[in-house]
User: Fold this.
Amino acid sequence: MRKSPIKVIALSIAAVSFLAACGSDSDSSSEEVTVDSAVEVTDDTAATEETAPEADTSKGEIPDGGVEVTFSGDVAGWAGKSVGIANLAPVPGAERWSKPLQACIEANGGKVDFQDVGGDATKLPALLEGWAVAKVDAVFNIGIDMTGQDSLITKFNEANTPVVIWGAGNPAGVVALDANQEEDGRIIGRYLIEQLGGEGDVVLVNAQNPALQSREAGLKEVLSTSNIELTVVGEAAGFSAEAAQKSVETALQANPDVKAVVGGFGSLGVGAATAVTAAKSEAIVVSMNGDPEEYAAIREGGAFTATVADGHEFGGEAACQIAAGMIAGEAAPGTAGESILTTSVLVTADNVPAEGSSEGTARKFYQLP
Assistant:
């Protein structure tokens, strides 16, 4: 197959941090079976080669080369403890992590100071400073970039206060959890190749954000092995469904033969589906995140056919357990300085959760070499 030409139409550069991402897969290993030199090779005796099957990351498996990380903290230890939780914004992409975390701590007798910055990352330093003065027992951060907070992180480390984050970078001194955003892009790419027979025009509507750019990279990697031509559209800070709808409407006017539209984020996929329906296009729509609005769109049975659920809820529960263990004197899990990633699941009409439910496949946690 030839590599597809990747065309970038419009995506300006801006700094909007939402979910940090990293990760690449190592190739699956192969083992050659040889015949001992003392054994005569006949028609009935031959050397064979066996190759281990690749992990199916669309079903919650760890990518090849990943090393599983497990946790053993006792959440009952939260009784009488106090914590601070910094939440990026009141949106599913953040609250699907922070709310299960908060529920876990409070259910086990802990006290939570939950602070939503409403998308204003400049509020984070004051929150961290206040929690350092208050001597909270643990600090959590969902989605607010930790760049430049080294001195405050050091204060928490010196006080043996765990700092556990999701999608907020990976500075020294924290336990960084995240989804493998590149792998999410690969999962959607493989799905599209299967659905489209490996050819056709596809549009990706995206915004400028580390996580979404990582998803885009994984998608491009997989589609480059096919005859699919990818066009990227979107606004730098266009995370809303309305912004995505406008971008996709323009793309469909320019090319009515588009076979699929990819939303780099949940709301972008929903906006894309609205544009596809309005244009009476036969294109399918897919996205990545696993938010309730995506599941609702899949259940409607229209253009929106699939998303990747990347395990925020399980990440929040894991953060509760990790910090509890560290407060009790356990070492931070995994290899220091490396992000701990969650596995993801491809969601279609065959396995879409019922209304009010999240995707329930148990997630595994791992680190990449």
